[in-house]
Amino acid sequence: MHPAPAPGVFAGTANVIAVLVLLLEFWMLRQALLRDQVRLYAAQSLVVSVLAAVVAATHHLPELYVLAVLSFALKVVVVPLVVLRLMHDTSEEIAGSATLGTASAVLVSIVVAGFGFFTIGVLHLPSAVLPTTALSVSIGVVLIAFVLMAVRRDVVSQAIGFFSLENGVSLASLVVAAELPLILEVAFLFDLLVAVVVFGVLMRVHHVRTASLSTAALNRLRG
């Protein structure tokens, strides 16, 4: 029985970058300071942009350079600046009380990330560009982003959770569909831009009406 061949430099680099994206997602979940959550999102987006540039250079896909630049401009610069500007009008720096404690939330995230990782591994989805491990990690990022949105009770954390979910989707798209036309890739960024506008309006209106970023008061809307 021959041992499995060692992964190449590209596969190893892609896997390391994907794992870094996952670790930054865990860090967001554990972070209590809202501004630090925004900075971690910017760092995660930077890592995804770097991966797009690496794929472009390695597989000679010049359109991914355009995607990497657009992703950097929007997700590393514009989105964090917009969110921080909206937070400037508030006095809140601490994330809203979570429905779960930090340790419990991390434990739940580990379980759901493991579920996603091993489920994708069982499916054996082929990829002509990135190693399948990166796809498994990207699913873990998406699931942890859902956990972040579910357990935090403030608009900023829930917005960052949604934005980081898009990073997980971007990572997955680089694995399974890196050769998609550029217009389709840009469409994902346009969706993110729309989401930023929606969350921006929600943050401002919610703060004006409740003088808080906490969503706990929204429980009164339940029938």
TrEMBL record:
Taxonomic path: Bacteria, Bacillati, Actinomycetota, Actinomycetes, Micromonosporales
Give the main localization category. membrane
- Where is the protein situated, by its record's location annotation? Cell membrane
Q: Which InterPro entries match?
A: HyfE-like
Q: How does it sit in the membrane?
A: Multi-pass membrane protein
Mark the transmembrane ranges.
6-28, 40-58, 64-86, 98-122, 128-148, 155-176, 182-203
Q: Does the keyword Membrane apply?
A: yes
What superkingdom does the record give? Bacteria
Say if the entry is tagged with keyword Membrane. Answer: yes
Q: What is this protein called?
A: Hydrogenase
Sorted alphabetically, the keyword list is: Cell membrane, Membrane, Transmembrane, Transmembrane helix
